[in-house]
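In the design runs reported in the main text, the only information available to the sequence generator was the tokenized backbone. The following block is the verbatim input for one such run; it is reproduced so that readers can re-run the procedure and compare outputs position by position.
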């Protein structure tokens, strides 16, 4: 049924489609629907409280008996250099006054969203089939404990070197995240020069360099992207942006509207909101911060300064942080189960016909156009 079955065999699933974890946008309904459709649903967690995570897992298990993934960040502790924080404050003052905000937060010690000992105990209690990390990995003892508990470990890599390091650390599956991807780059070190390797170049090089299953991510929006990922040697895909248009996703009206009008060139990588590079819809704030090339406080400290601006956004005052990838204009507004079925039909028709037949399923699920 699928040309490479490494992932489906390993996880005992029908379709090699992982709905990407997207902190703030994924819901238990989305996750359960994708897992029930034969793929893997993923919850993205950042600052979510442990009790909420525990409750979410209970709800997911009520909705599905299939495997699902819980995702966490594994970034470095921010250094919060006072000079950098102060110069960012200075720069942001103009935007604060534009937004009619007088007070800038004094305390920049935002919760760290880190994978703490308490988080580990919680995940060991929940024992999901999959646990994934972004921005690198927590310590080797954490990985060992999770694996001993029977969890499979996934982590994003944005270069071949990162993928090799992940394999050496005992990760089971590597997610090759190309430059096109929506959301934060999974790069381990934000201070290295990011050459922005695209999915088409990254996937085959990682496939050649490691012996663990490789999942392609970034700019994959329909069956053509999935079929292409298999041709590059991936054994599955992780798709985020495509699932933002499902009714089960937690997406604001402004976000959905931006995706409806999306173009291939209307996003850019920005540190302006979180302190880490993320692909988001361009706006004046993002462009202005990029133009000044000012060092910004580390992730996630920068959120403390940008959150009030995001909240003040209204109509023409646009400081919104709308994350999506370069292929968003290909999105279909379909319930998650239908989206997975559509993707499977498209990809399999292409793969079986040697690429000759493209069963484009029209937007809004209106039917099949060959
Ligand atoms: C809105 C949004 C939020 C994201 N949040 C996370 C996250 O919390 N954890 C994570 O590992 N990846 C996150 N990502 C990145 C995805 O894992 C994945 O790399 C990306 O969605 C793939 O590219 P695509 O959006 O073009 O499909 C996010 C992506 C988006 C679009």
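Verbatim output:
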């Amino acid at each position: 049924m699928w040309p490479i079955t490494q992932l489906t065999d390993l996880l005992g699933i029908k379709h090699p489609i992982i709905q990407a974890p997207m902190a703030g946008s994924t819901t238990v309904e989305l996750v359960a629907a994708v897992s029930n459709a034969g793929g893997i649903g993923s919850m993205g967690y950042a600052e979510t409280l442990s009790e909420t995570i525990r409750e979410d897992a209970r709800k997911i298990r009520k909705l599905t008996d299939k495997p699902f993934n819980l995702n966490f960040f594994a970034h470095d502790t921010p250094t919060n250099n006072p000079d950098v924080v102060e110069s960012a404050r200075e720069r942001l003052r103009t935007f604060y006054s534009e937004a009619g905000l007088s007070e800038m937060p004094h305390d920049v010690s935002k919760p760290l969203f880190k994978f703490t000992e308490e988080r580990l105990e919680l995940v060991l209690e929940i024992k999901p089939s999959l646990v994934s990390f972004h921005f690198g990995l927590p310590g080797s003892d954490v990985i060992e404990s999770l694996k001993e508990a029977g969890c499979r470990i996934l982590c994003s890599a944005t270069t071949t070197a990162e993928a090799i390091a992940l394999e050496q650390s005992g990760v089971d599956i590597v997610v090759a995240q190309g430059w096109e991807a929506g959301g934060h780059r999974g790069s381990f070190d934000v201070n290295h020069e990011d050459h922005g390797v695209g999915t088409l170049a990254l996937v085959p090089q990682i496939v050649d360099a490691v012996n663990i299953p490789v999942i392609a991510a970034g700019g994959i929006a329909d069956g053509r992207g999935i079929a292409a990922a298999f041709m590059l040697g991936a054994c599955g895909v992780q798709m985020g942006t495509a699932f933002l248009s499902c009714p089960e996703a937690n997406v604001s009206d402004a976000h959905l509207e931006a995706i409806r009008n999306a173009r291939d060139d209307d996003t850019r990588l920005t540190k302006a909101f979180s302190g880490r590079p993320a692909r988001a819809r361009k706006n004046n704030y993002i462009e202005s911060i990029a133009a000044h090339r000012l060092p910004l406080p580390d992730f996630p400290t920068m959120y403390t300064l940008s959150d009030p601006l995001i909240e003040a956004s209204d109509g023409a005052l646009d400081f919104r942080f709308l994350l999506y990838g370069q292929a968003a204009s290909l999105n279909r507004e379909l319930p998650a189960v239908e989206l997975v079925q559509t993707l499977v039909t498209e990809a399999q028709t292409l793969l079986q016909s040697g690429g000759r037949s493209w069963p484009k399923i029209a937007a809004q699920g209106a039917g099949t156009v060959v």
